[in-house]
Write a structure and sequence with these properties.
The structure holds 2 protein chains of 2 kinds. Chain A is an alpha+beta fold. Helix content of chain A is about 25%, strand content about 30%. Classes of the chains: A alpha+beta, B mainly alpha.
């Protein structure tokens, strides 16, 4: 294993080698290899049915792969039963035992490890303090709010100081505001615990907020593994470009001089890709700039306003470029600037894309 | 608009809305009235009337003699003991057979589980009398089981399977098993697999997770099935009457003979009242033993 150098007493690296799992003739995982560093917060991101949960369950040992191997540090775990893997795990619906109190739930992993009552007590209290639920030990599970249940599930998964913690969409049942708050809290908790965390979500914003690295999974295959900013700015695959951000993909034409957009050469600061293969332009609504007239220093994406949607902090304007192509632009909703000069529906709107903001991806739009 | 005025029933349309709510309440009451009256006429009034008979002697005077007789006669006390014994043995075998079967069914894919549940319910389509006679055919001296065992040489003499306690219990377990399985299955089905996975991922062995988590979470259904089987077993009549061969006298049979042979309604009524109290006592004791009201809190 390559990551043994940064292995320490608080976390373990995970090595996944050519893991495959199929249900009938459908691959849930197809030859997945991934090296997760010790202490890393890695997110498995993908649409539902992409295989991300299968991958997590295979790491946990609840799903047996058809082939491949899993290492925790130096030790191969492929054949180890789940209760011997020493993982902390947080489930989507929390899976807190309803007939136990908060303290009994948090103490469960200590109890099955045969720890004495007094040792348990201090550990439980410390774990509950860690998730800001100190003094809640005697409460029953049904007396807790969603966010508190989530915290208890976290405390239970980390109370025995596992070196690896797995999380299966743990925040998906919370409302938006609480979810965003818990994302920050979870991130801070990770820094305190220093354990390796494998996190599964279908929410790209959640993945971008919390992760050290994101592994994008689609149709059972690992599409791209990168840090959030690298993934957002340099998608290497049409699926990633489309899935991350509110992207619209626009087919670029190839000419002798290079890639062209709507008949004009594409201005970009990155070197133009060579080889004459088809490429797409990734248009993110927040990257477009509106002006009062055509600006020739930018890539021109002007069109006709089709609709505009007020979304509170911003206005999303759908723009018709002609030839059945629709893009959208996000403009700030502050009254002093752009919102009061957004053209009416049916009127032309002048949009440009800076050369620095140009993202291209190999492939053809279907 | 003044918000406070809304609270004082003077707001816009408040009187009409309150009237509409009352009308809806009356409608629901009227809809359930026929069944309430039916239950009153066919359950409560007869039960009270029959119970009241137990407090009068044959001359029609108030007396405790019917109850005195029950607690002083060896015959009646023996009947109570036999009834409780058979009920407990039946319950024991229902749990022994039903719990593993239910666990297996609950772990199957939905479609398969539904199909197999039809087989569990299939016996309900045949009358208890017919099924009991069928058991007689199977269990008697020259029945299918004895014939088969003798022909393959496992036994020389036919086993005494019918016309005794064994026969009664086989028949009762068969008839009452679905009543145990149905609530238990529903209860097990609602246990999310993630609870077991959580327990195992936290370091519990699969066996530990089963007992500490799955079994505990199946207890509400287990309790419902247990009470159902036990209370139904206490009042069984047909099966022990036929498969017991006259040697097994349960409470329901004793009530029957008290009326049919001696036409002593007061004595029969007293037996019925004691049976009813026994059934309630069992539910109460089970509730205390399992602490079930806590389990239902989610």
């Amino acid at each position: 294993m390559s990551n043994t150098d940064n292995e320490n007493h608080k976390s373990l690296p995970i090595g996944i080698k050519s893991l495959s799992k199929s249900y009938g003739d459908v691959y849930a995982l197809e030859n997945v290899s991934l090296d997760i560093k010790a202490g890393e917060f890695i997110t498995l991101l993908g649409p539902s049915g992409s295989g991300k949960t299968t991958l997590l369950m295979t790491i946990a040992g609840f799903c047996s792969p058809d082939q491949g191997s899993i290492y925790f540090g130096q030790q191969e775990m492929t054949m180890t039963p789940p209760h011997m893997r020493g993982l902390g795990m947080v489930f989507q619906n929390y899976a807190l035992f309803p007939f136990m109190s908060v303290a009994e739930n948090v103490g469960y992993p200590l109890r099955v490890r045969g720890m004495t009552d007094s040792d348990q007590k201090t550990k439980i209290e410390a774990a509950l303090e860690m998730v800001q639920l100190g003094g809640y030990g005697e409460r029953r599970i049904h007396q807790l709010s969603g966010g508190q249940k989530q915290r208890v599930a976290l405390a239970r998964a980390m109370v025995f100081e596992p070196k690896i913690i797995l999380m299966d969409e743990p925040l998906s049942a919370l409302d938006k505001k609480l979810r965003e708050h818990m994302q920050i809290e979870l991130k801070a908790l990770h820094q305190k615990l220093e354990a390796t965390i494998v996190y599964v979500t279908h929410d790209q914003r959640e993945a971008l907020t919390m992760s050290d690295r994101i592994a994008v999974i689609n149709n059972g295959r690992l599409v791209q593994v990168d840090a959030p900013k690298a993934l957002y700015d340099n998608p290497n695959d049409l699926f990633v470009a489309d899935f991350i951000g509110e992207s619209v993909l626009l087919q670029l034409e190839n000419s002798i001089k290079g890639l062209t957009l709507r008949g004009k050469p594409l201005k970009m600061t990155n070197p133009q890709p060579k080889g004459g293969e088809p490429h797409c332009l990734v248009i993110r609504p927040e990257l477009l700039v509106m002006s009062n007239s055509k600006d020739d220093s930018l890539n021109d994406l002007s069109g006709i306003v089709n609709a505009s949607v007020y979304q509170g902090e911003s206005v999303l304007v759908m723009v018709d470029l002609g030839e059945n192509t629709m893009i959208s632009v996000r403009l700030p909703a502050n009254k002093s600037q752009s919102s009061n000069i957004i053209p009416d529906v049916g009127k032309p709107i002048y949009l440009g894309l800076h050369a620095e903001d140009v993202i291209t991806v190999k492939g053809r739009v279907e | 608009m003044n918000i406070a005025s809304n609270n004082q029933l003077e707001g816009l349309n408040s009187k009409e809305l309150a009237k509409a709510r009352r009308k809806e309440g009356r409608l629901f009451f009227n809809l359930s009235l026929p069944s309430l009256i039916t239950i009153l006429i066919v359950v409560f009034i007869p039960v009270f009337w029959l119970s009241s008979l137990s407090f009068f002697d044959r001359a029609g005077d108030f007396s405790w003699e019917n109850y005195d007789r029950i607690f002083q006669s060896q015959l009646y006390i023996k009947t109570f003991i036999v009834t409780l014994k058979i009920s407990f043995i039946t319950l024991f075998f229902c749990i022994l057979l039903g719990y593993p079967l239910c666990y297996w069914l609950s772990q199957l894919p939905n479609r398969l589980a539904s199909i197999l549940m039809i087989f569990v319910l299939l016996p309900f389509w045949t009358s208890i009398l017919v099924r009991t006679y069928a058991w007689l055919v199977i269990l008697q001296r020259n029945g299918i089981i004895n014939d088969t065992l003798i022909s393959i040489g496992w036994i020389d003499e036919p086993l005494q399977l019918a016309h005794n306690l064994t026969g009664s219990i086989i028949g009762m377990v068969h008839i009452l098993l679905p009543f145990f399985i149905l609530p238990l299955f529903a209860s097990m089905r609602s246990i999310d697999n993630n609870f077991i996975r959580a327990a195992i991922s936290l370091g519990s062995t699969p066996r530990g997770a089963f007992w500490q988590v799955f079994f505990k979470m199946s207890l509400p259904g287990f309790f419902a099935g247990t009470v159902l089987v036990f209370v139904l077993a206490l009042g069984t009549y047909v099966t022990p009457a036929l498969l017991g061969g006259g040697k097994i006298q349960m409470l329901a049979q004793r009530i029957d003979s008290t009326i049919m042979l001696y036409s002593n309604w007061g004595a029969a009524s007293a037996l019925g009242v004691v049976l009813l109290i026994l059934a309630f006592a069992v539910i109460w004791i089970f509730n205390r033993a399992f602490g079930i009201d806590k389990l239902f809190m989610r």
